[in-house]
Amino acid sequence: MAGLYIHIPFCKKACHYCDFHFTQSVEQMDEMVDAICQELEMQSEFLERETIHTVYFGGGTPSLLNENQLRRLMRTIRFEYYLSSNPEITLEANPDDLNPETLDLFFKNDINRLSIGTQTFHDPHLKWMNRAHTAQEATDCFFQARQAGFENISLDLIYALPSDSHELWQADLLKIIRMRPEHISSYCLTIEPKTAFGNWVSKGKMTDVDEEYAAQQFEILLETMEKHGYEQYEISNFSQPGYHSQHNSNYWKQEKYLGVGPAAHSFDGTHKRANVSSNAKYMRSIKKDLVPYEIMELTEEDRVNEYLLTSLRTKWGCDLELLRSNYEVDLLQMHEVYLTKLLDQGMILIEDDFITLTNSGKLLADKIASDLFIPNQV
Ligand code: SF4
Question: Strand pairing partners for 3?
């Protein structure tokens, strides 16, 4: 189930919480699309000609792509790679870019899943986060997308905003549920150091996210999603039956993927590599027929620990037999006392040789995973 990720590193505005790789110099988009198409050609052997089941345009803001740019990208992908007969092809979009014309263009160019960066339906919060859209635009574009033919739409929400209240959070959740998207991703606000919010927190102009408050909002999220028929299949992801994000699920299951574009990551089943996080360096290097990447050496222990971190966040949980057969790691034996304690505290379940987290355990998912990490051999 190999996947292809294309990073489009441009945004109209810098959201105050975001530390993804992007630039606001959108005048370089044509040149960047040329470079990405060239990299797609150069990397066509990376997945050893495996069939690609998912394509994901992320960023940045891929909904800034114009028709010519998207056509060129899709044509190159189809020419250089084997796509399955019904691939999931997702495009991340911001509401301010979506209108009947752009939606029609995306739909006609094989995009069959939209991931829309709604974030909240509360205008003062959108403004405070420096988002480029309004709540009305977020609502309108969703229904326009339906009219354009999209039957698989994901909406994003952020919670635990410092000036939030549980009433506003519940209002956001009920609004989104009434719209009935197939998929909802909901992330807790995190304050990253190199962002406007990070700067404000360090200068005391803004308070950091309150963990207790965030936990309460997470509980409201779980309760509301469950009540309205959305299955939590990963800590931050909920879907109606049959609408998991196949692309992201493959990451969590450690399937192979190729990432193309600046700052994109790839994984060939053993090694990870990361393209340079600079548009200028990326384009210069591609012009010289060199993909500018760094190999991220993963020890066997790193791979086990990464598996623990990602698998415990999912409804499928951590496969103990996989750890035994692939890595000779017997987690039950290594952490018998700790796992028994977690079982007694109702944080985990162990069934059919899988460990999964209960709702209480999900609140401490990263801590539980890191407590189970195996040490690197020196
Ligand atoms: S639009 Fe998306 S990628 Fe761009 S700054 Fe905002 S959150 Fe980050």
Answer: 54, 257
Domain 300-372 in CATH 2.60.40.60: no
In which residue ranges of the chain is CATH 1.10.10.920 found?
A: 300-372
Ligand 1 test: best mutation among 11, 119, 127, most atoms within 8 Å of CB? 11
Please give the average per-residue pLDDT across 227-249, as a whole number: 97
Position 297 scores a pLDDT of 84
Pocket of ligand 1 (CB under 6 A): 11, 14-15, 18, 20, 22, 59-61, 94, 117
The pair of three-digit structure tokens given for residue 223, joined into one six-digit string: 């309760």
Q: Give the distance (Å) from ligand 1 centre to CA of residue 132.
A: 9
Contacts 24+ apart (CB under 8 A), 286-289: 286/35, 286/38, 286/39, 286/42, 287/35, 289/42
Residue 378's pLDDT is 56
Average pLDDT over residues 146-171: 93
pLDDT digits (tens, 9 = 90+) for 180-209: 999 999 999 999 999 999 999 999 999 999
Average pLDDT, integer, range 308-318: 96
Q: Class of 2-252 per CATH? A: alpha beta
Intervals of CATH 3.20.20.70 along the chain: 2-252
Most distant CA pair in the chain: distance in Å? 59
Which tokens go with 291? Answer: 């993909």
Q: Model's pTM, two decimal places?
A: 0.95
Structure tokens at 196: 């406007």
User: How remote is the CA of residue 152 from the centroid of ligand 1, in Å?
Assistant: 22
Distance of CA 374 to CAs 215, 307, 336, 377, Å? Answer: 27, 11, 14, 9
Tell me the C-alpha distance between 186 and 195, whole Å. Answer: 20
pLDDT tier at 171 (50, 70, 90 boundaries)? very high
Residue 314 is given by DSSP the state B
End-to-end Cα separation, the chain, in angstroms: 34
Place of tokens 């028709």: 67
